[in-house]
Structures
1.
Amino acid sequence: MKPSQGKQNRAEVNGAVTQIYSLKPLAVPELVGATNGQLPVVALVLCHGMGQQVRHETLAEAANNLHHSRAEKAVVRYVQFADPDRPGKGDPLLPRAEIEVEVPSREGQPAARQFVHVYEVYWAPLTEGMIGLTDVVRFLTSAGVQGLRYARNQFPRWLFGKEESLDVKPNTFWQLAGLLALVLSLVLINTVMTLVLGENLFGTNASRTAPPELINRLTTCLTVLLVAGGFVYLSIRRCNKQQRKPTQQPGAVRWAWVFLGLLCLLLVASAGFMGWSYVALHRAAAQPDTHEPWLSGRSVWVVLVWAAAVTVSWWCRGFLVQYLGDVAIYTDAYKVDKYYTIRTRIRRLAQRTVEAVYGARVEGAAGPFYYQRVVMAAHSLGSLVAYDALNAILLADEAAGGGLRVPARTGALVTYGSPLDKTTFLFHAKSQKTAIYTALDSSRQPLVWDAAARRAVQWVNLHSTADIISGALDYFDSPASRAAGTPPVLNCPDPDAFTPVYAHTQYWNGWVLSKALRLALSGHTISVGDLALRDAEANPLPSAGA
C-alpha cells in the first residue's frame, strides 16, 4: 500500500554503478580466511506492501527516515551480484541506497553511526492486472464464510515439531462477520445500480423500465450514502493531516471512528433497502411498461447523484482489485493455479535478492562476507513475502551445511502493518487439510519449526489497533514453545499509527519503526521497553556486559 507522506526533508544523493561478487548459497564452501571482526556495513532488505507501489518508493522512505548525515550525501547505485564461477551470468542489477544511520548508544558510550546498504524487493509488477473484481469478491466471500465456521473454535498448527491447538482471537468472529456483511452489501448495491442503469439507459430489458418511485427511492438512498461517505472521508482526512497522537486530539479520532462505524451500518441497511425496493416495485409493476424514458423530465440532481454514485463505485472497484487483489493472489495460491505461478515468481524474486545479499563477499569466493549483519523489514503483505524469503534462505543454508551462517547473521525480522496472523488463520480455515499437510507445510518454515533458528533471529512486529489489516502475531509461538525457551514475536503497538483507515500507512511517519530498525541494524537485542520511549526520553541502553 502506498505510504502516506512522512518527513518532508529529502536526502541528497550521488549515483553510481558497481559490481561485487557473491556465491550461490547452495554451493558455499567452508569459510577461508574469514575474520571475526565486524565489517562496517550492514544490509537492510525491504519488502513493500500491497497495492500500486511506485518503484523505489519504499527505498526512498527508508533513506529519508533513517539517513542521519546531512553533511554527506546518500549514495544510490545499481549493484549486480555476480557469481565468480560463472562470469557474465550474474543476477540483474539491484537498486541500493547507501546511507549513514545514527544508532542508539550503550551506557557510557557516545552515539555511534552505522553505514547501511538498503535494498528493495520490488514485486508489484508481477501482480498488476492479474486478477479481476469477480475473483476478489469470491476470495473475500469465501474467506468470510470459511473463517466464520472456525472463528469460535481452536485450530491446529504445528509449532517447533509439535501440533498445538491455538485459540482464535476473540474479535475474529465479529471482524469476519463485518467483512462479509460489507462485501455482500457492496455487491448488492452495485447489482441493483447495474440492473437499473442497464434497463433504463441501455435497454437490456425491453419489456419494462424502472418505475419512477423506484428511481426516487434509490436516488434518495444513494444521496444519503454519498453525503455520509463524504463526511466520514473529510473527518478522517482531518485527523490524518494533523499528524498528532490521539491523546492530543481525542475528540477528532473518537468521532472519526464513530462516523466510520455508522457509515458501515448505513451501507448494510441501504443495501437491504435497495434490494428490497427493486424486487418489490418491479413485481408491483405487472402491467406493460408505459413510463417515460429514464432521463426524460428528470432533474439535474438525479443525474448528478447517479453519476457520482457510479464514480464512487468505480473507485471502490479499483481499490478492491488493486489492494485486496494482491492479498487474494498471494494467499489463495494453493487453490488457483494461475495465482500459484505468480506467487512462485514473487517468491523467486525475493529469494534471489536475499540470496545475493547474504552471499556477497569482499574478495571473491575466499573472502569474508560483505555483510556481517542483515536486517529484513517488510510492510503489510510484504511481510508474507519477507517471511517466505527468510525461511527459504534458512532452508538453503541448512541444506548447504550452514556455510552462510544465516541465523547468526540475521539481525532481525521487522514487520509492520502485517496481516500474517489473519492469513495464517484463514489459510487453515480454507484449506481444511489433515495434520500431515499442516506438519509438512510448517516444516518448510524454520521460523516456526527450528527452535535454534528462531532463538537466533529476533522478530519485531509493529501493529496498531487503528489498523484493521495488522495485528499482534500470536500464531507463531505457543505457551509450550515459550516455556521451552523459544522467544515469542515481540509485538509492539505504534502510537503514531492511529488514524482510521490511514493507520496502515502511518508507520514510517512515527519514530517507533525508525528506532526499531536502528536498534536492529546496530545489533541490539530489542525489548518492548526500548520501543516505549523516544530516544530523547529513553535512558541509555545497558552495556553489553550488563
2.
Amino acid sequence: MNKGKASLADLIFRSIFIIFSILTVGITIHTYQLSVNTINEEVKRNLQQTSGIINNFFEHRLSILQIRQDTDAESLAIYDQYIESDYKNKLNTYFSNIEAKSPYNSPDFRFIEVNNKLYWDDGNSSFLSLNENCLKIIIKKNLNINTWYYIKMKEPLSEADFLIRKTPIVNNDSGRIVAFIYNAVMLNNNISFLNKLKKLTNSQDVFIINDNKILASSVSSNTEIYQEVTSILNGTRKRIPSKILNFTPINIKSMSGEISILSLKNKDNIELLEQRFIYSVVLSFFVLIAIAVLIRGLFEHKILLSLNSLLKYTNTVSKNETRSEYQGCGILEFDQIGEKLEQTFSELIEAKEDSYKAQRAAEKLAQVKSDFLARMSHEIRTPLNGILGISSLLKSSNLTREQQKQVNILHQGGEHLLAVLNDILDFSQIEQEKLKINSAPFKLSDVLENINAIYFPLCKNKNVLFSIENHVNPDVFINSDQVRLTQILFNLLSNAAKFTEKGKVKLTLSLNKHNSDYYLQFSVDDTGVGICAEEQTRMFEPFEQSGFSESRKFGGSGLGLAIVKQLLDLLKGKITINSTLGVGSTFSVLIPVLICEDKADISDAKAENQITSLPTGLKILLIEDNKSNAYIAKAYCQKYGLNVTWRNDAAQGIAELSKSEFDLILMDNQMPGMSGIKATKYIRNHLKIMTPIYAYTADALEESNQEFFSAGANYIITKPIKEKSILDALAFYKSENGLPPFDS
C-alpha cells in the first residue's frame, strides 16, 4: 500500500527544498539583475566619461596650440620684416626660443606660406617623413583659416597623418595679410600623446583609428591585443574577451576620412562579481539541502503549522524586501530554520542595500573623476647659480650645433642678468677699487645676437628702427671681459632706446689695428632727445640724467652711464659723446683687446697642461644646503677626478668629519642652524682638524671673506661657481700642500 509513496518528512524536505530554492533563487536573481543593471549603468557612464575626457583632452591640447599659434602670428605681424626682408635665421631664433621656454605648447612642426609658396619651415617635418614637396601640397589644398584639419599624406617617399591649422599673419599697419603660419600635430606613432590619453582615461590600451585602420597605438603591432583590434576593425570579430571597447569620434574637419579614439578597459571586476553571484547561488542550494535534512524527522502535528508560519514569514520578507524578525513556531528545528532564513534574508537585503550604496559611491567617484583635470603648468625657476652652472656643464657636453647655440644664449642671458643684478654692488666695488676684470676669449657675434634678440623687438614696439652694422669678422675671437663689455653695450643701448621716441637706434662696430695693438671700436647712435653741452660734462657722474624733467618722464636711476665710464676705465678704454639737443646723441667707445687668430691660442695648451697636472683622487667634503648648488659643485669636481661627499648642513658635515678623513672641505656660509663661519671655527678650535677649508659662498663682500679667513678658512670661492674657479682652487691647493704648481 505504501509502496511508491513519500513520507511526510520527504514531502516536507522536498517542499521546503523547492520553495526555499525558488525564493532564494528569485531573490538572488533579482539582486543579481539590480547589480547587473547598476554595473551596466556604471559601464555606460564610464564610457561616456572616457569619451568626454578624450574630447576634452583633444580640445585642451588643440586650444593650447591654437593660442600659441595666434600669439606667434601676432608676434610675427609686429615683426613682419621677418617675412618681407627674408630674415629666415631670425625666424629660426624666434621659434627656437619659444620651444625652449615652453616645449609642451609647441607643435610637432610648423611652416610659413607667402604668396602661395613655401617661405620657411622649422625643419622638424623632415624628421617626421614629410619632405618639402609635402608642405607645398598642403599649401595647395587652400585650407580655411583658423580651422583644424585632419590630413593623410601619401607620397612615394612620405606617409604621415597629422592635424594642421592655418592662421594668417596680418600687418598691423596696413591690415594686409603678409603670410600664413601652419601648425601641425602628428598622429601616427605619437607615443607620448597616446600615453597621456591612456593615463587620463585609466585605459589599458589606446588606439587612433582612421577609416577602420590603426594610425597609432600604445602597444606594439606584433602583440595579440593589436591583432585582435585589427580583426574587429576588419569585421572578422565583434568583441575581445575581458575587454570593454569604447569608440570616441573626434570632431575635426577631415580631408581623409574620420578619425576616432578606441580605448580598451579590463572588465575583470565585472566577471569577478558574476562569479561571486554564481558561487552564492550554489552555496545557497547546499545550505537549503542541509536545512531540509535536519528537519526531515519532525512529526506532522506541528510541522505543517510551523511550516505555514515559516512560509508566511518568508513570503512577507520576500514581498516587502525589508528586515523582519522571525517570531518562532514552537519547534526548535523550525525556529532554527527561521533564524537561519532571517539571517539569510538580512544578508541578502543588506547586500542589496550595499549594492545601492556601491552605486551611489560609484556615481560620486564618477563625478570626482569628471571634475579632475590634469594640471601641467610646471614652470620651475632655478637659482641663477643653477642656470649658469648647468648651462656651463651643458656647453662642455656633446650637443648639436643648434643646442649649443641655445645653451650659449641661455648662458649669456644668465651672465648678463647676473651683471645687471650686481650693478649697485659693482659700482660700490669700483669706487673701492675692488672690482676685477676677468678676460676670456669669445666671439663678438654671440654677444650681438643676444643684443639683437632683445633690442630689436623693444625698439619695434616704440616704432623705432634698430639696426646693427658689424664690420668685425664673425669668426674672430676677442680676448676681453665679455660680461663687462656686454654690460657696457646694454647700458648704452638701454639709454638710447629709452630716450628715443621716434627715428632710429644704431649700433656700429669695427676692429682697428694700430701698430701691433687691436682696438674694438663701437658707437651707439640715436635720434632721441639729445643732451645739452652743459649736461654732457656731468653725464658720467653717478645718479645723473639729462635734466630733471626728462628723468621724471623716462625714469631710471642715472647709474648706468657712471658704471659704463668706470668699467671702461678698468678695461683701459674711453668713451666720448657727441650730442645735439632735440636731434640725437652718439656715444663712441674705444677698448683695447687681444685677438686670438685660432681658438687653440686662447690657452688651450695651458688648460691641458693644467688638467693633466691637477691632483686627482682627493676626498672632498662638500657642506652645502642648496641642492642645485651642490649638484653643480659635485659635477665640476667629479669632472677632474675628485671624490665628493655631500652633507646639507653644518651639523651633518661636522658629524662626517668626526668619523672620516678628507683632503679638502668646501664650506657654504648661509645655512640653516650653524653658519659656515661658525662651523669653520668649531672645526678648527674644538675638533682641532687642520684639513684645508675652502669657503664656497655667495657673499661677495670683502668683509664676509675676511670673517671666513679669520675663522680659519684657507681660500674663498665666490658663487656663481665656474669651471675656472675649481681650477684656480686646485692650483692653490697644490701650491699650499707642497706640490709644484702647474705651469702658467
3.
Amino acid sequence: MSLSEGWQFRWGDSPVSADGSPAWAQGKDPAGWQAINFPSNPPGRDGKRHAWFKTTLPSGGSWRDPVLYIYSVNLLLEAYLEGQRHYRFGEFGADGQGRFAGWPWHMIELPPDFAGQPMYFRVYSDYTDIGLWGEIKIMERAELFGYVLRHSAIDLGISMICLLLALLTGVFTTIQPGKRHQLAPIALFSLASGSMILAETQASQLLIDAPLMWNYLAAGGYFLLPVALGLLVEQWYRDTRLRLIRRIWQLHLAYWVIALGAASLGWVSLAITYPIFDGLLLISMVLMAVIILPRLKTLDVEQKAILATHAVFSLLLIADMAVAHGLLPWARVPISAGALVFSFVIVAISLFEYKRTQQEFKALNLRLEQEVAQRTEELQTLIQRLEVFSYTDPLTGLYNRRHFTDILEKASAQAIRHQSPLTLVMIDIDHFKRINDQYGHEAGDCALVNIASQLKQHFREADVICRLGGEEFAILLYHTEAGGVQQRTDELLDILSKTLHVHQGTTMGPITISCGIASYPQHVDDPQALLGLADQALYSAKLAGRARSHVYA
C-alpha cells in the first residue's frame, strides 16, 4: 500500500509540551500545516534545517504484522504515533540538530489497527535535500524482506562478479608485471564499481546493519571511478592529452583522500561530499569528451567500444545524480547494468589483445560463471525461504491468509474444471477475548497453538488448514461434500469438549469452537463464493449458542 498522497508539512521544529514531547505530534497548533504532494523538499526552504511532515495512515486490508517502509531519509528522522515517539534514526541534540548517520532504508513497525491514525515525522537535514525520499509503503514485515531481496538480487550478483573480477585481475597484475599498467585500471574499476553497487544495494543492510559504514564504502567506490577510467584512457595518448587526462584523475584521487579523510575525522559531513563530487564529475566528463572526441577516428575498435560502454555508464550515473538531486522523478536507476557491461567489455578486449593469456582468462570466465550460478542459487534459495515464510503464520505454523487467498483461487478453478466437490469450513474459537482477558495474551497464544495442533491431527494431510487472523481459521477440503465434513467437525467438537488446556500450570478448561460449512456445487455455482457462505453458516452457529457446526442453508 503506497503512501503517495495526503501529506502535509511545516517548516521549523515543534515546541515542547510540559511532558517533554513535541506539541505538533499531539495535534496542537493545527493551523500551520500546508499540503504537499510528497514529503520531500517543501517549497520555501531558504536554508531551513528542520521540517515536519504528517499523514493519516490509510484504511483497507487485513494486517497481521504491518510495517512502514521508507526507501531513505535526508537526513535524521523521528516518527510519532499517538503523540509518542515511535521510531528514531540518528541522534538529535538538544538544539534539534545532529550528525549524518547514513542513508539506509527504514522499517517502522505499525500496530495492526493503524488505520485512520495521524503519523508525524520530524526531520533534520543540513544536506541539499530534506525529507523522506524514494518509496513509502505499508507492507507486511515478511513481504518487505522478500521485496528488498528481489530488488537486490541482480545487484548483489553483479557486485560479486565485479569484485571477483577485481580479485582475479589483481592476481594477474602481480604475476605479470609487464602488463600491470594495462590490468591495474581494470582491477581498480571493478573494485570501485563492485564496492559501490554492493554498498548501495538494500540487502547489504540485512547483512550488516551499519548504514554509515556502507555509505563510506559506497562513497569510496564512487569517488574512485574517474580515477580508474583516467588510468585506462591515458595509455592511449602520448601527447599533451596524456598530461591533461593525468591531471584529471589525479585531482579525483586527491578528492577521494581529502573528502573521505575529512569526513572520517568529523570535519565535514560525508553527505555533503556527494554533491561536490557530482559537480566535479560532470566537469571531468565534459573535459574528457573535449579531449577525446576530436581524435575519436584515430582510436581502434576496442578503444571505441570502451568509450561507448563508458558513455552508457556515465549516462546512468548522470541520471542517478538527477534523481538524487530531485531533477528527475524518483526511480531505481540500473547503474549496476552499466558497470557489468563496462566490466565485461574490458575483459573481452583484454582477452582479445593478450592471446598468450587466453587459457588464464578462460579459467577466469569459468570461475565467474560458477560463482554467478552459486550466488544466484543461494539468492534464489533465500528468496524461496522468505516466500515460504510469507505464506506461513509464525505462531501456529499453519498457512496464513495470503496463502488461503491464493489456494482458494486455484482450488476453485480446479473444482470447476473437473466438476469435483469442494468444501470450505470457517472456524472461530468461542469467547476467545474472554480467554485473553482472564488468563492473558500468552495463554491466548497457547490456546491458538493447541487448536491449530488439533486441526492438523484431525483433518487429512491433503486438506488445507489456514489461520486467517486472530482466532479465525479456515479449512479447504477437496473432493468432499458438506455432509461428510459436518460429521468430521462434529467429531472434532466432541474431542475439544473433553480436552483441557494448561498454560504455565493454569488449567483453562475445554475451549470450544464454532464451525460454518459451505460446499460447491451443493450450495453455490462459483467456488469463490464459498467464503461468504461459510461465514454466514458460522454466524448462524454462533447465534444458535456456539460449540457447534452449521451447514449453509
4.
Amino acid sequence: MHLRHAPRFGGGELPEELFIKAMAATSEISLITDASENIQHVSESFTAITGYTADEVLGRNCRMLQGPGTDVDTRAAIRLALDAGEPFRGEILNYRKDGSAFWNMLSITPLASESGELTHFVSVQRDINTRMALHEQLRFQALHDPVTGLPNRLAMNNHLVDILAGGPRSEVTAAVGMIDLDDFRVVNNTFGHEAGDMLLKEWAARIQAQLRDEDFLGRMGGDEFVLILSGISRGAPEAGLTRVLERLSSAVEVPFSIDGRRVTIGMSMGLALFPEDGFDTASLLKSADEALYEVKTRKHGRRRWWELAAEVPSASDGVAAASGASVSDGVASASASAASAAETGDPADPAEQEAEWTRERRRDALYGGGLSICLQPVIDLRDGSVHLFEALARLTLPNGTVLQPAGFVKDLSAFDLDHLFSTVLEQSLAQLAEWDRQGLNYSVSVNLPPTTLLDPASPDLISSALARHGIAPHRLGLELLESQTLEWDIQREALSQLVRLGVGLAMDDLGAGYSSLKRLSSLPFNAIKLDRDLLADIRTKPSETLSLIATLIQMGRDFGMNVVIEGIEDEGIAEAVAVLGAPLGQGFHFSRPLAPQDAAAWVEHFRLPAPNGSLRTCLGALAYHWQFARLGSPHPRALAECPLSRFLASYGSSADVGRWHIQQHDPRAAHAGAGRLLVDWLVRQIRTPAEPAGPRMELLA
C-alpha cells in the first residue's frame, strides 16, 4: 500500500534507532507494529499497564488487547482507518493480561518508506480509566435514582420511546404500571427518612429480582414507581400479567427489618395497555395514574393490588374510598431515650520528673544496645513470592518491656532520630550480608526520618554503609514518611543524590498527610506505600474504599511507581487489593514482624492462601465485579470460566444473584441495573450478617 500523507523515512526497513527514539519520545504506553499489525516493539510502560512482557506480545497482533466489551463500531473504525493507511484517534476498552479492563485513549499513526510504502504503525496509548470511570458514574447518575439505584424518569422516557417506536403488534402488547406504596409516609414519620430510604432500596431490590430481563422498573420520586412489562399476550393480557405480578406481591409479603423491628407494607398499581389505553408516553402514564387512583380508593375492599385501566370500576359503583394505616396491637411505639454519659475525667498528666525519668530510660536503652530490628515480609500479590522485607525498630527497656516505634519515637530529638536510623540501617544491611553468605538474595526497606536528610552528609553515610557490608544499592529502599514536613531545597538534593547512588525511595503512609501529590510530582520516588488507615472502612463502605484504593493504584501506574498496600489484616482485603491490581502488600494476614533469624525459614514455607485467579471471599468477589461495572464493561471471561461463577456457586447465592451475574457476560447490551444489584448484594454480605428478628410492626393495607 502506498501512502501519500504518512510520515516517511529513507530505506525499506525502519531503523532500530528510530524505534528507540519513538519509545523514548513518549512516557505513555506505546508499541510499534509492522504493516500487518504484528507487534515488533513495546515500551516499558506498556508492560506496566497491561501486564504483558515484551516476549509475550512480540509477533502477535495488537488486537489481542481487545475483548468482549470492546465496542464493535470502534473496532470497525480502527479497521477502516488502518486499511486506508490513515491515522486513528479514539477511545477503546482494552483488557490486561489478568483479564481486568482499562479504557485506552488510542492514537495510531501509519509510517511509510520514502517511496510511500506502508511499513509500520506507531501506537500511542494512554490509560484513561479514571476519566472513563467518572464518565460512567456520571452517566449512571444521570439515568438512575440515587437512593434505590433504579432508572429514573429520564431513563423511563427513553425506554418507553424505544418500545413505542415499533408501533402496535398483533400478538403481544406492553403494559405501563404506576405503583404507589401504601401509607409509606407512616414509615418515614415513625422511623425517619433515612430508614425510609433503606426500605425503598430493599423493596426495589426485591421487586427487580422477580422481573424478567425485558421488564423495566423505575422510580419517579417519593414512593412512586413505574413498571413496564413487555411481551404480554394481547389475546389474554390479564392472565399474562397475573403470572408476573403475583411474584411481585409475594416478594413484599416477607416483612422488612427497620431498627430490629419487622415492618410489612402494601402496594397499589394501575396498569395501562398499549395501544388500548394510550398511544404515547403521556397518555399511557395518564391512564395508568387514573387507574392507580381508583384502585387506592378501594384499598380495603379490593380483590387484588392492581387493576387494568379499562376495568377499574368508577366511584359510583358504591365502593367506599378508604385509606389509612395502623400499627398492630402489642407493638410499642418508638420512643426516644437519652443515656446519661458516664463521667470520665482525663487522666492526670504524670509528674514532670517522672516523665523526664521515663524519657531518660528510653534514651539509655536507645544508646545502650536496646535497639533491635524485626522484619515484616512484603508479598508480591501476583505470584506469592517474597523478595523484600521492611525493617521495623524495637526498643527493649531494662525491665524487658519491648516498645514499638509509636511508643518511643515521639520523644526523640532530631539527633536521636539520626542515631535510630543509622542503627537500624546497620542491622538491616548486616542481615542482608548474612543472607548473602547463605546464598539468599533479599532486599530491605528502612524508614528514613526526614530530619536526617537535613544533614548534607547523609547520602555519604548511606553509601559508606552499603560499601562496608558489600550490598548493592538497589537492594536498599528508604521509606520517607508522607506525614512529615520537608524542607524542599536541602532534602530534595539529598534525595537526588540517593537516587543517583541507586537506592530506592518510597513515600510511606500515603494518605496520612496533606501534601502527597506535590511530593510525588517533585521528588524522585519509585514506590508508594498506602497507609493502613485507608482500609479502615472497607467493611462498612466497601465500594467507596475499593474506589479509593483503585484510584491510588492507578496513580502509581501513571507515575511509574510500585505500589505497596499496608495493613492487610485478613483474606478478604488481600484478595480484593490483588484483584484491583496492587502488586505488593504486607500485613498481619501474611505475617507479623519476624525475628531476623526466622525470616528466611518463613519465606521457604509461605504460600499465598488462595490460588491465583480464584475468589474465596465476598470482598474479593465485589472487587472483581466492581472493576468491570465501574467502566460499563461486561465480564471478559466465558461464564463457565469466570471466577465469580465458581464463587457464587460455592457461596450458595440465590437464583436472582446468578441471573444478575449471567447478564454481566452479555456482550450485546449493558445491564447496568443488574450490575448495580449484584454490587448491592455483595455489599450486604460484607457489611453484616442477617439481622436478628425483632418485634413486628404491621402497616395494614
